[in-house]
Specification:
Strand content: 25-35%
Strand order of the largest sheet: 2-3-1-4-5-11-6
Largest sheet: 7 strands, mixed
Helix content: 25-40%
Low-confidence stretches: none
Mean pLDDT: 92
Shape: elongated
Number of strands: 36
Structural class: alpha+beta
Number of helices: 16
Length: about 700
């Protein structure tokens, strides 16, 4: 597919609830444009876009797929995205590459929870919007109810540009309100006729509302229209439609059925006629607080909005052209890393199928193989252009993972590192205290996908474990004790003797004081006592959790001129610390989380009640700009490790939250007792 001019490109991101028909919408466009010879479908695993084995098995989109569609001299780049919370990062990134978001809504189910959450994301990004009511031919489909629900949820700017001719099993075609014609798709071709008489009144009512909405795009015409001088002419209506959509004054609603390809041609016509071109929408924010617009005349520049790893091709970078013309052989500089990349190939991809092209122009979306860049990076010939970071959601669902057998340990580590490298919504770290490898994602669906791909593609067996919470220990009282280490083995022995005082040091971390006078311990051996104490602090006393906020002073001791050495005094320091701990009233600390939950009012009581069961305390409540409740609380981290899953269950997916681990507080006595008992039981089991 030849590189089109910027004005001939349309970038559309398909969003909405899983199951509404986003993928089948894109498949219908591919088929009707002649790009594919048959209509791809998801239910039989023959989709061009949901080609991944996991997508075929689950029958819903996991990863954003690209469908470049040639239509009447234009190139429509359709980005088919997931509607699942667990994969919303990919969807949000795709929004950054588009100028228009087309919401696909099921005619029976209507706009559901995830649709509303995605609507709010699109609003924040100030993307233009349109809606397609799909499956109007299904049993129990109700167009009037669907429209009423849309207006109730998303406002009065919504207006029909097509209405159905019949619903349910009587659905035959659509009425094009802009052109005031009836459109029927039959036998693989579209037939255009006059509007049936029985639909004339409904069509005129929809036309009148359409004129009301788009007239706002022109102040002079609006005043004439409101004064009742005359209705908008066809020319005036058509000239205002694109402006009204671009200015977000009007959100067009289409209707049809993707599986029988009814109502799709009209949308394609309106996409190329009225939807904004890349250079008619913006601006694009940069890291320095400035902004850019799509510029056909500027230097070659693009940003990476998606990265995948292909088993045959290697790393593939999905890029949106910001400016200029990109051709193979051009050298680009990564603004973040300053690394240089010479472009060898440029692909246009339809699902997994790629086609080499000779160039890509500003506003277009293409794929570049073997690019040394990450999602969110900006590349240009100067290296001086850098757009603001993509607003990925923060992963908050951690699990511990380990290889099921020793032979897979290294392979597991390599796989996870590569996976986290290409997915910005997956983080990986090794907790050196708990000795666990922690993978954090957006939810259980993402974790299950990782496990499946690990096994199917790399033959790695792994198991999930409960995340261990990193507790701490500290002391309440001042105490002191002797640590004496004496060992004789026939030759030179070991002798170390020291007296140590421990004091609570709240918030001060660890401090070591040398109070020895009179040479009771040689100066060169004092650091060994410090090392011994620090080693004992790492080991813990009540459990195996490390100590914090302790001041330790060595104030007396004795030594042997031959048998005293660093090793002996290190052991003496360790013994002195443990002996002093016994009298210092040690206790356990647990990490605390500051959590902020946003829900609708109906779930206020549920969240507040739930926090009380998690030993949390509410620290504040507020109302956000949408009228939602914002509840702030401080909760032991142990109680909210799985909160991403729990909140989704409690609020049916409506709630969202943020969380920061901050500080430690004392563990209640009953829980502390159980933790200590569990630790002792594990030790006894290990010593058997």
């Amino acid at each position: 597919m030849a590189a089109p001019s910027t004005e001939q490109v349309r970038n559309i991101v398909l969003v909405g609830q899983d199951g509404a028909g986003k993928t089948s919408f894109a498949e219908a466009m591919l088929h009707l444009s002649g790009k594919t010879s048959r209509l791809g479908t998801t239910h039989d695993g023959k989709s061009n876009l949901d080609y991944d084995p996991e997508e075929i098995k689950r029958q819903f989109t996991i990863s954003t797929a690209l469908a470049p569609i040639p239509y009447k001299g234009f190139k429509i780049n359709v980005l088919d995205t997931s509607g699942s919370d667990d994969f919303i990062g990919d969807t949000i990134a795709a929004m950054e590459a588009a100028e228009m978001a087309l919401f696909v809504i099921d005619a029976v189910a209507g706009p559901q929870i995830n649709t509303t959450k995605l609507w709010q994301q699109v609003e924040r990004k100030r993307l233009c919007r349109a809606i397609f009511i799909n499956h109007i031919d299904r049993e129990h489909a109700d167009y009037d109810s669907a429209m009423a629900n849309l207006i109730a949820q998303y406002g009065q700017r919504i207006g029909a540009v097509t209405i159905p001719i019949g619903v349910d099993k009587d659905f035959k075609g659509v009425i094009d309100i802009i052109r005031m014609k009836a459109r029927y798709h039959e036998g693989g071709k579209e037939r255009i006729e006059e509007i049936p008489a029985e639909y004339a009144d409904a069509a005129q009512a929809a036309r009148d509302k359409l004129c009301d909405l788009v007239a706002e795009a022109d102040d002079e015409l609006m005043m004439k229209y409101l004064d009742g001088e005359e209705a908008l002419t066809q020319q005036e209506l058509e000239s205002l439609l694109g402006l009204a959509i671009a200015q977000e004054l009007f959100i067009p609603v289409f209707v049809g059925s993707t599986l029988i390809e009814q109502g799709i041609e009209g949308i394609m016509d309106d996409i190329v006629t009225y939807f904004p071109a890349p250079d008619a929408h913006g601006p694009i924010p940069t890291v320095d607080g400035e902004s850019l617009s799509i510029d056909a005349q500027g230097e070659p520049a693009c940003f990476v909005f998606k990265t995948v790893s292909d088993a045959f091709v290697g790393r593939l970078s999905f890029v949106k052209m910001i400016s200029g013309v990109l051709e193979p052989g051009v050298e680009l500089i990564n603004a973040k890393t300053k690394k240089k990349d010479r472009i060898a190939h440029i692909y246009v991809m339809t699902g997994k199928e790629n086609e080499d092209v000779k160039s890509a122009k500003a506003g277009d979306i293409v794929v570049i193989p073997k690019l040394d860049a990450h999602t969110g990076d900006t590349l240009s010939t100067s290296g001086k252009i850098e757009i603001a970071p993509l607003p990925f959601p923060r992963p908050l669902y951690p699990v511990a993972i380990e290889a099921a057998n020793q032979k897979d340990e290294d392979k597991l580590g390599d796989f996870l590192a590569k996976y986290a490298d290409i997915d910005p919504c997956v983080t990986l770290h090794r907790d050196e205290q708990t000795h666990q490898t922690i993978v954090t994602t957006l939810g259980e669906g993402s974790i299950n996908l990782i496990l499946s791909r690990m096994k199917e593609r790399n033959n790695i067996e792994a198991k999930l474990l409960e995340v261990k919470v990193p507790y701490r220990e500290t002391i309440r009282k001042v105490s002191q004790a002797q640590g004496r280490h004496k060992k004789q083995t026939g030759g030179a022995g070991q002798f170390g003797d020291c007296y140590v005082r421990l004091e609570p040091n709240p918030g001060g971390g660890y401090e070591f004081l040398d109070e020895v006078v009179g040479g009771r311990i040689p100066r060169g051996l004092i650091p060994a006592v410090d090392k011994g104490i620090q080693g004992a602090m790492v080991e813990g006393y009540l459990t195996d959790d490390p100590f914090v906020d302790v001041k330790a002073a060595v104030y007396d001791g004795s030594y042997h001129p031959v048998d005293s050495n660093e090793m002996a005094f290190k052991q003496a320091g360790r013994l002195a610390f443990r002996n002093a701990c016994e009298k210092a009233d040690p206790y356990l600390l647990e990490p605390m989380a500051n959590i902020e939950v946003t829900v609708t009012d109906e779930y206020n009581g549920t969240i507040l009640s739930d926090f009380s069961t998690r030993r949390g305390r509410v620290t504040g409540t507020a109302t956000d700009e949408r009228g939602n409740s914002v509840i702030k609380a401080r909760v032991p981290y142990k109680e909210v490790v799985t909160y991403a899953r729990d909140l989704r269950s409690m609020t049916r997916g409506i709630g969202s939250y943020s969380l920061e681990i901050e500080g430690y507080e004392e563990v209640p006595a009953d829980i502390s007792k159980k933790l200590i008992a569990d630790y002792q039981a594990r030790r006894e089991e290990a010593n058997k």
